[in-house]
Specification:
The protein has helices at residues 3-21, 25-41, 43-54, 62-67, 71-86, 125-136, 150-167, 182-188, 204-213, 236-248, 270-280, 288-294, 328-338, 351-360, and strands at residues 94-99, 105-109, 115-120, 140-144, 175-177, 197-201, 226-230, 257-263, 283-286, 303-305, 319-325, 343-347, 365-368. The radius of gyration is 24 Å and the shape is globular. The termini are far apart. The chain has 14 helices and 13 strands. It is an alpha/beta fold.
């Protein structure tokens, strides 16, 4: 694709965004529900294309689980579309209104951004998520998925276009999938007259690349380096359950547990806390105090001494690090130093410590006993 071809295509996306802004809520929800039905009816086709991507990846690689699409996951994607269709529209909401002294009435009303550029890695379900949220908010979208999920992304986007054309042939340009061509992506990032905002979703390398090369304003997401702090007053069984759930449910996703922070007074409970993840086959990188406590009591093949690189590390697999801290203040300092401001948790019955943790941890999501 030449630069002019790309510009011509993006002009069509821009024009489609104007039509999308005037689309009725009934039509938006109809498209979402139709796409949900189509995904489920074409499950075999999606799984077949997904298998082509998986065939190039070792099952032991964390990326395998992130790319995998099966009947259960496709049904979950379809259900998410149906759920989004039930949400109130985020567009046209009166945020503020007043009448000036001269009688002039003024309203501040939510409106679409226009054209959203989204570059993401790995999970093909992100393509459907991105399209559906942009459609619900009346934004046209230009997407670029990871090359490792190329076949999966292509088939999902074909179903999006099929649904849009069925609703209104002129709408098919409101969603566009960029080719896996680095030069095309580089050109795309330099077209602020045709794209209103960029949203990179993936690893630090991707985010840094977009930040350094884009002339388009950017909303930055981030990698997930996530911690759970088990405080002095934590309930033992609750802490065990939370650690196990956070580490093993979907270890390849960005809000899975990376580092357990343990109050030093609970060091004697560490073997019990980690027994469920040990039985699940989780590899543990332990600091000096925790390693000494675990040595001879934890599977030797899965126990390693932690290096400095194991803190602030996003594992995306059945691996985690453990660090012993003196108190809630040291836990907070560690998280704010090594975390990625994604998801953090405290297990505690001490209200003062909980309140301090919830106030002081700088993260998008902060959990207490959850």
């Amino acid at each position: 694709m030449t630069t002019q071809d790309l510009r011509n295509q993006l002009k069509k996306v821009r024009e489609a965004s104007f039509k999308l802004a005037d689309l009725s809520e009934e039509s938006v929800n109809s498209i979402l529900n139709q796409l949900a039905d189509l995904l489920e009816s074409r499950t075999d086709e999606i799984v077949k294309e997904n298998a082509k991507d998986l065939a190039k990846i070792e099952e032991t690689e964390h990326i395998y689980d992130r790319i995998l699409l099966d009947q259960e996951r496709i049904s979950a994607i379809a259900e998410s579309l149906r759920k989004i269709a039930t949400y109130d529209s985020p567009v046209g909401v009166v945020l503020e209104q007043k009448v000036l002294k001269n009688g002039l009435g003024m309203k501040k009303v939510s409106a679409p951004l226009g054209v959203v550029g989204a570059i993401f890695e790995a999970r093909p379900n992100v393509l459907i998520d991105t399209f559906s949220l942009c459609l619900k908010s009346r934004n046209a979208v230009v997407m670029k998925g990871g090359s490792q999920a190329n076949n999966s992304n292509q088939v999902l986007h074909r179903l999006i276009l099929e649904t849009l054309e069925k609703e209104d042939p002129e709408l098919k340009y409101c969603s566009f999938l960029l080719a896996n061509d680095r030069e095309v992506v580089a050109e795309f990032l330099r077209m602020p007259d045709l794209v209103d905002v960029m949203v990179p979703r993936g690893g630090q390398g991707l985010i840094d690349y977009v930040r350094e090369n884009s002339l388009i304003p950017m909303i930055e997401t981030g990698r997930g380096v996530c911690h759970t702090f088990v405080d002095q007053s934590a309930d033992l069984q609750m802490a065990k359950d939370i650690i196990f759930n956070a580490k093993t449910t979907r270890p390849s996703v960005c809000n899975s547990l990376d580092t357990l922070l343990l109050h030093e007074s609970r060091l004697s409970d560490l073997v019990k806390l980690l027994r469920p993840v040990e039985d699940f086959g989780v590899e543990v990188f332990a600091d000096e105090k925790s390693y000494t406590e675990l040595e001879g009591k934890f599977n030797a093949d899965k126990l390693k001494k932690a290096s400095s690189e194991d803190f602030g590390r996003e594992f995306l697999s059945l691996r985690m690090s453990v660090k012993v801290v003196n108190d809630v203040n040291e836990a907070i300092t560690h998280i704010n130093t090594f975390g990625s401001r994604h998801s953090e948790a405290i297990v505690s019955e001490n209200k003062e410590n909980v309140d301090k943790f919830m106030r002081s941890v700088d993260s998008a999501s902060v959990y207490h006993n959850a």
